[in-house]
Design goal:
Blueprint (H helix, E strand, L loop, with lengths): L8 E2 L2 E2 L11 E5 L7 E7 L2 E12 L12 E8 L15 H15 L10 E11 L4 H15 L9 E9 L5 E5 L3 H6 L2 E8 L4 E9 L3 H31 L1
Bound molecules: adenosine-5'-diphosphate.
């Protein structure tokens, strides 16, 4: 986990040089894979994720089929080589199963599932390098991959994290996009997914404690960051379809 730093923020500047409102440098490539119906590669700082989408396609096992709508199934996983130190045990653990479930719900909110009854939309999220905020980075990529697959959506889903950092002068500060030291040592962190055109959150998960006013300011900052991410998602799709 590394040494606990003396502070995570000093005079408004974080350990990696960012301000409280800044997300890490982001790179988004739509249509990264050839074999999937839709795909995306994303980097958010040192966090790197690949997403492949298949569908709408026949549902197996059949009993999962829904006569009214498509079912959305996310599978989140972290590669053994994605983390520091000892390798992560291969395969999905309880955390990955939980992230898969909440991601399916966060994305289903944006997909026009009623247009494709009795089908499945499968979304595979592979974290190849983890430096915190992997679930939100994966969600941002997944919605680009869904658009790349041509699946009709009401909106893109843009996602980011925010958290509470301790400062050099004893202050507690809310900031967006937690990196690994901030996630490890910060007082709290929260993952949100957001549909910018509906001003609607489709995921909110918190670890730690925040006051109501800290939560409010965190959500406001996350909303702003998601709108910036949304512009980067659109630009990635534009580059893809101009090719
Ligand atoms: P998120 O990645 O969405 O922030 P968590 O808060 O659960 O989700 O995890 C924070 C970070 O902890 C991950 O991004 C990753 O860097 C690290 N991590 C999570 N699970 C493992 C694991 N099994 N082994 C090593 N590091 C892990």
């Amino acid at each position: 986990m590394g040494e606990k730093p003396e502070y995570l923020i000093k005079k408004g500047i974080r350990l990696d040089g960012r301000t409280i409102e800044q997300v890490r440098p982001m790179k988004i490539v739509a249509g990264f894979l050839e074999k999937a119906d839709g795909s995306c590669y994303i980097e958010c700082g040192k966090t790197k994720v690949v997403v492949g989408v298949h569908g709408p396609r026949e549902v197996h096992p059949k009993h999962q089929e829904n006569a009214e709508k498509a079912i959305v199934r996310c599978t989140y996983d972290m590669a053994s080589f994605s983390v520091d130190g000892e390798r992560k045990r291969p395969g999905q653990d309880r955390r990955a199963i939980e992230i898969s479930k909440v991601s399916s719900d966060a994305l289903e909110a944006a997909i026009m599932v009623e247009r494709f009854p009795k089908t499945a939309i499968d979304i595979f999220m592979e974290v190849i390098q983890a430096d915190a905020s992997t679930r939100v980075t994966a969600l941002t990529a997944a919605s680009v991959a869904l658009a790349d697959a041509g699946i009709p959506m009401k909106d893109l889903v843009s996602a980011c994290s925010f958290g509470k950092l301790y400062g050099a002068d004893g202050e507690e500060v809310i900031a967006v996009d937690m990196d690994k030291p901030e996630d490890n040592f910060g007082w709290a962190d929260c993952a949100v997914a957001y549909m910018p055109n509906f001003d609607k959150f489709t995921l909110m998960q918190m670890d730690g404690n925040l006051t109501v006013s800290e939560m409010r300011s965190g959500l406001e900052m996350a909303r702003k960051a998601c709108k910036e991410i949304y512009e980067m998602q659109k630009a990635a799709l534009k580059r893809r379809f101009e090719q």
